[in-house]
Amino acid sequence: MTTKDDTSGTWVTAGLVLACALLFGPIALPKLAPDKRVGKPAPDFVLPRLEAATPGKKPSELRLSALEGKGVILDFWASWCMPCRQQAPIVDRVAKKYGEQGLVALGVVTGDVPEDALRFAAEHPVSYSSVLDDGQASKAFSVQGLPTLVVLNRKGEVVAVRQGLVREGELTGLAEAALSP
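Now predict its structure.
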């Protein structure tokens, strides 16, 4: 037998659940929805290599479409981004593990001063190159926060987009998906 107190507690609980859903749903649901970029061709870009920002170095550029035929991990980062510092070695290990199978990683320095990015790259070396984004790549890939990883398959199509720190196991699975026929 329910009493009036039992019924009112149920209504209060239901009201709190509904309020939380209305308040946090718009924040959480977009992260759970599939990314609209997945399955679509990656937008091409041509950007200067980070090394080209070194005084006295010849400018050289990299075109994303030149990597077609390889699986690609685009690592959008900045020197001031603390999670980016954690993400870079993970990306490096996965890229090395699958490099012989055709996986490459490419850092995309976004929203950073070239000198700071060069200093960071010297202090925290990775085996993959980085390019300096003038805003075109981050805009084309709708990057809204750092770090952001965009994984492309051999055809140049987006396989996955992940914002925030990605664990090595998950990135390994995404790399394998990018390399699968």
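Helices lie at 4-32, 82-98, 114-123, 136-140, 168-179.
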